[in-house]
Design goal:
mainly alpha; globular
């Protein structure tokens, strides 16, 4: 049985020009801060999505579509196009941005694919890192767009147009599931194509040439570097300033 509420408590005097203090809330800022219509961000992301789509189409038309779509860089570019299309729509219609786990993972995959292409030893363009068998200017342009232009553009979008999402370190481990699945896919693909000269898509994953011991060692080193880059993305997400700020009617920035 509950105790009765006393009714003889004195009323607090009202002070003109003052409003009651707001109670602290555990609701995230994403739920209380209204989104903003951002046409410039929407236009930038739309151009980025169209550029990514065009690069993948050129790669597929100039090479074998099945082999092209099997490459990690191409799959990451397809994901980038989808995320940029969705982000452009949200920025134009003044909706909340995509979750940070999605945008952070997309950035991580695209940047990692670019680093693998530029840093690790690779075959020349005539042999094809994405299945292209010629060195014409469309092939060269698509290759540079896929591995240089799009990753840099994605980094600029994340730094200058995307608000921090305060991602967690545990998400960095979750982001590693796709690279692990891709490693299993490419090794299985190589076993299913024993007579094909293009059975292995990357030279450092060529089991026929290096053996499983060396290939798995290369994959382990690359995975550790992958995870370190994921941790760096999480750390930067907590330290970078918020590029999206909105002033309220009182003049304070939200």
């Amino acid at each position: 049985m509950t105790a009765p509420i006393p009714r003889d408590l004195p009323d607090l005097p009202a002070v003109p020009g003052m409003t009651p203090a707001l109670l602290s809330s555990s609701a995230p800022a994403r739920a209380v801060v209204p989104p903003v219509h951002r046409p410039l961000a929407a236009a930038y992301r739309l151009v980025l999505a169209l550029l990514a789509t065009g690069a993948v189409l050129v790669e597929a038309l100039l090479g074998s579509p099945a082999r092209v779509l099997s490459h990690f860089a191409v799959q990451c570019t397809v994901l980038l196009a989808l995320v940029m299309f969705a982000s452009a729509r949200r920025a134009w219609s003044a909706r909340h941005p995509l979750p940070g786990s999605v945008t952070g993972a997309t950035l991580l995959y695209v940047v990692t694919a670019a680093l693998v292409h530029h840093v690790l030893p690779r075959l020349p363009l005539t042999s094809g890192t994405t299945g292209i068998t010629d060195a014409s200017w469309p092939a060269t342009l698509a290759d540079h767009t896929l591995h240089t232009v799009l990753p840099l553009a994605a980094v600029l979008d994340w730094l200058l147009l995307t608000p921090p999402a305060r991602t967690h370190l545990r998400q960095a481990a979750t982001w590693m599931l796709y690279p692990l699945a891709y490693l299993a896919f490419t090794l299985t693909r190589g076993e299913l194509l024993p007579g094909s000269p293009a059975r292995y898509l990357y030279p450092f994953l060529d089991v026929a040439r290096h053996g499983y011991k060396s290939v798995l060692a290369n994959a382990l080193l690359l995975g550790l570097a992958f995870y370190a880059l994921a941790v760096l993305v999480v750390a930067l997400d907590h330290t970078r300033p918020n590029p999206v700020r909105r002033r309220s009617k009182t003049g304070f920035r939200l």
